[in-house]
Amino acid sequence: MSAGLKPASWAYAEEFVGEDEVLAGARARATEVGVAPIGPGGGAALRFLAAVTDSRAVVEIGTGTGVSGLWLLRGMRPDGVLTTVDTEAEHQRLAKKTFSEAGVPSQRARLINGAALEVLPRLTDGHYDLVFCDGDKREYADYLAEALRLLKPGGLVAFDNVLWHDRVADPAQRDPETVSIRELGRSVLERDDLLPLMLPVSDGLLVARKL
Q1: Which UniProt keywords apply (predicted)?
Q2: Against a cut of 0.90, is the pTM above it?
Q3: Three-state SS string across the chain, please?
Q4: Total of domains in the chain
Q5: ∠ CA 207-208-210 to the nearest 5 degrees?
């Protein structure tokens, strides 16, 4: 860990912003159905990003059981709408339960069941403040292309799992997911129309602002 950071310090930072019973319930349901949601530190980062951008329209790829979606909704404007896409209808049913338990009005969460690369092209160009990607890692490059089309100038795109369980930093790891995430990082760095930042929270969060 950087500068000799001890595991206890990393855990302290990761859990600095606590989660309530609703999020704990969503995490429990995620475990039951085999979903790995973003960690508490990453969730807090998403809430912060949604808040500082005063987000009214957000796209999420990978609904899961609603952990990341609830963090995003809690940072968005009170009239903001989250559009969240997932291939698993059962996961989205559980996400609706999470949002309902949190008191989120139903009109603030638009859940679309389907493959991201089939759904995203149907969304409105230049309409969104933030796009959060936590779907198929092998499709991250395609998600970036879609996000840049969907985002307003100054909007943010964020990718979860960009450290991918310590595999991305190890050049010996060459599985398809690791290679895809590694290539995404290079692509974001090389673009003149993006201002990038990698946050070592949870399993890594790559954020870039569309210039």
Answers
A1: Methyltransferase, S-adenosyl-L-methionine, Transferase
A2: yes
A3: CHHHCCHHHHHHHHCCCCCCHHHHHHHHHHHHHCCCCCCHHHHHHHHHHHHHCCCCEEEEECCCCCHHHHHHHHHCCCCCEEEEEECCHHHHHHHHHHHHHCCCCHHHEEEEECCHHHHHHHCCCCCEEEEEECCCHHHHHHHHHHHHHHEEEEEEEEEECCCCCCCCCCCCCCCHHHHHHHHHHHHHHHCCCEEEEEECCCCCEEEEEEC
A4: 1
A5: 150
Q: What is the CATH number of the domain that holds 96?
A: 3.40.50.150
What is the tens place of the pLDDT at every residue in 165-183?
Answer: 999 999 999 999 999 999 9
Count of CA atoms in the C-beta half-sphere (13 A) of 86: 23
Candidates 87, 197, 207; CA nearest to 156 is 207
**Are 37 and 64 contacting, i.e. CB atoms less than 8 angstroms apart?**
yes
Q: Are 91 and 35 in contact (CB under 8 A)?
A: yes
Measured distance CA(81)–CA(165) in Å, rounded: 31
C-alpha span between 202 and 161 (Å, rounded): 8
For the stretch 79-113, pLDDT in tens is 999 999 999 999 999 999 999 999 999 999 999 99
Domain that holds residue 77: 2-210
Structure tokens at 103: 């008191």
